Amino acid sequence: MSLSPDSPRKPMTVTALTISVKLRLEEHYPGVLVAGEVSNFTKAASGHWYFSVKDAGATLRCVMFRGFALRTRFDPRDGTQVVVRGGLSLYPQRGEYQCIVEELTQQGVGSAELALRRLKEKLLQKGYFAPDRKRRLPLYPRRLALVASPTGAAIRDMLQILKTRWPYAEVIVRPSRVQGEGAAAEVAAALRTLSGLHVSRRLPLSAIVVGRGGGSSEDLAAFNEEAVADAIFESAVPVVSAVGHEIDVSVADMVADYRALTPSEAITALCPDCVAMLDGLTDTAARLDDAVTHRVALARQRLTQLAERPALRKPFERVREAEQKLDDWGTRLARAAERRLTRSGEQLAALADQLEGLSPLNVLKRGFTLTTLADGRLLRSAREVRPGDALRTRTPDGVVVSRVLETPGS
Amino acid sequence: MPDPTPPVRFEVALADLEKILRELEDGTTSLEDAMARYERGVGILKACYGQLRDAEQRIRQLTGVSEDGTPEFKPFDHAASVEAARPARRPKPSADDLFG
Fold this sequence. Notes:
The structure holds 2 protein chains of 2 kinds. By secondary structure, chain A is α/β, with parallel strands linked by helices. Helix content of chain A is 43%, strand content 21%.
């Protein structure tokens, strides 16, 4: 068996063999994807990277030329788990085969994720995430702008909660696509438009909510773009992000003044509850009433205390006592007079009765008569008269005059 | 058209109410002042009540901005399915009044 049967004993040059192997390697391994750990990593002055990727059983020499190295979004170090993509080749001068690496990624991390990390790092440096930059949300928003898909669940959820929770706020909807090609630019433009209208006082706003419903992390892409981050950062109006993904925090979430987990939560966080507030007002009204009632009671009490001080009390009391006495006396007098009159009336009536009973005229009515002498004295005895004397006898219906004919002694 | 009743700034109104309550509960104001504050408190409360009770959400869609910077609106369609038809009421004060 021979590689070159027609020239059995003619040796090949090292170069010829090496080139032959190199060509075969390049032909058979034009694109490999190899996972391993970085070792012997060096950055040459030329900008090329030289390193090895190894696992427990083998080592693969790698070179990454400057143009490709520049596109790498992380700093490889010895020990970093990576995936290299490239083609196998051979470095003739050293007789070593190697991988010409075109793309180097950290293992388990996609390139989009790497880009995102780079962006986050950049924005962090620019101060986009600084806690002291976060603005306070308005307590009682009067006009809210919603940037969302006009047909999505997010806008529906937000409007429903607004209707019951805070109908007091006026709502401005600025429709925008929130996913797919160009969504980031639309969201950013919407934010800039609204902020501009606020600044020009044409449409003052309390807050802007930028939201979308929950979804896969790919759908969040628009909210991970620098254009959106810039627009939120530069907004003159506080921005609430409601991007709807609990696990992945988007760049928009990090720049926003408030991060809500869902669009519904954004409204809940932003708006007070109207019903609770009315209840609160009722309580306040009761407190106000209590306070003023108490205040008046306090005043009354103080007045009483003042009035009881001797200096103030005495002159007034004297007068009052006098007045009271007068009143009292007046009443008593009136009552006494009345009583006296009544009693007199009664006495008179009784006396009249008595007098009437005693009146000799009444005796006469019972069949007796009254006889008097000529001098008017009452005839009480037979010895007081002699025959011939005149007598006057009173009867109930008249006086009879008569003369004495006989006496017991005559 | 000027608004019949200016909208309440709740931040200001509620802060005023709290202040009035504190002063009344302090008991250090004169009786006359206390009565005046009470009257004012009741007035603020009434205004707040009214604004909240009569609130009717207004939803507009911002369609664009004209060349001179004026915002352009149209009624928001989605609202039709969300908001049940309500009887017409008197026009509400504009939110602009709160932004001075």
